[in-house]
Structure formats: structure tokens, C-alpha cells
Amino acid sequence: MCASMTEYGQRDRADTINRGGNSRSLWLGLLLVFVFTAVSGLLFAQSNREEYELVKNYILPAHAEQASELTQEGEVWLKDGKPFTGIAIDRFTDGRLARMLTLRKGLQHGNTYLWYPDGSPQMSATYRKGQLQGRFLGWYQSGGIIYDMVINRNGYAGDYIEDDGSRAVDDNSDSEPEGNENDFEKE
Q1: Strand 155-159 relative to strand 86-91: parallel, antiparallel, unpaired?
Q2: N or C: less crowded end of the chain, CB within 10 Å?
Q3: Which whole-number Å values give the CA distances from 129 to 11, 109, 113, 148, in the listed order?
């Protein structure tokens, strides 16, 4: 009987040690999740800034077409009556880029960028087969983020910003509507 009691006592002690080990594993797991979340937040913030700089410093390819040279039937962009594949642009009256869209078989497919008249980025969006799908970013003229979200086939899929009241607010936001088509020069 003494041997049995000792055996049970050792098992209880081993179970207690194992439970303590599980507790440590749980804390280690939670710590790793916290670190991953913090690092991801920094990467998204860095990614927002990188996207802003990419749009701000966009270099127009030599083969871009003026959007005014194309016609649009519904969502399909045509050149000489055929669906256009390539880059189409609009410019402000001073010559600065106002809009760049990537087209494939006449549909928006790839990046679309908008700029404010002063040349600062206004929006970056990704299209797939004519539908907004992917990352969708918008900036105030001052460079602060208005929105940073993901759109999928079913619509809004989530965002990268939590509105905790700390987002940048542009003092001129009431006087500068987004995507006003009257901003583009019609040639």
C-alpha cells in the first residue's frame, strides 16, 4: 500500500508540474500573439507611407494614352472601337497628373491612382476585371490617411485603420471633395 500511495503522489506532482508547463505555454503563446500584432501594425503603417510615396513619385510610362482619346461604353474603355489594354491618364489644366488607370481588355484591372491639383496623392485603388477588389487607400491633401480598407468580391472586407479619434484631420477637407470629374482637363 505504501508503494501505491507513493506512486499516486508522484503522479499528482507530475500532473501539477505539467499544468504549470501548460500555463507557461499559454503565456508564451499570448506574448507571441501580442508581439506579432504590434509588429503587424507597424508594418501596415509603414506600408501606408510606402504606398503614399509610390503614388506621389509615380513615373508615367511613355506608352500611356490620354483618357480623352478613349471612349467608354458602360464600364468598357475602347480605342478605335476595340477594348483597350494599357494605361490611361487624365491631366489637370497645368499638366499635372489627375488620374491614372490600368486597363485590360477594356476593363479596369490593376492600379488606379488619383491626385490632388497640387500633385499630392488622393487615392490608390486596385481593380480586378472591372471591379474594385483589393486595397483601397485615400489621403487628405496634407498626406493624412482618410481610409485604408480592403474590398473583395462581396464588398467591404475590412480595414487597416481603427478610428480611435487619433486619425489625421485635414482642415480643408470640407472644401475638397473626392474624385470630382470636373477637375480633369477635357481635350
Answers
A1: unpaired
A2: N
A3: 64, 5, 17, 21
What are the DSSP calls for 93-117, one per residue? TTS-EEEEEEEETTEEEEEEEEE-T
CB neighbour class for 47 (10 Å; exposed up to 12, middle 13-18, buried from 19): middle
Hey, where are the domains in the chain? 1-57, 62-183
Domain 62-183: top CATH class: mainly beta
Collect all residues with Cβ–Cβ distance below 8 Å to 170 and sequence separation of at least 6: 140, 141, 142, 144, 176
Cβ atoms of 46 and 83 within 8 Å: the answer is no
Using a 10 angstrom Cβ sphere, with 0-12 exposed, 13-18 middle and 19 or more buried, the burial of residue 113 is: buried
- Once rounded to an integer, what is the mean pLDDT over residues 39-56? 65
123-139 pLDDT tens trace: 999 999 988 878 888 99
pLDDT of residue 140: 94
At 186, give phi and psi (nearest 5°).
-100, 120
Sign of the CA dihedral 72, 134, 123, 102? Answer: negative
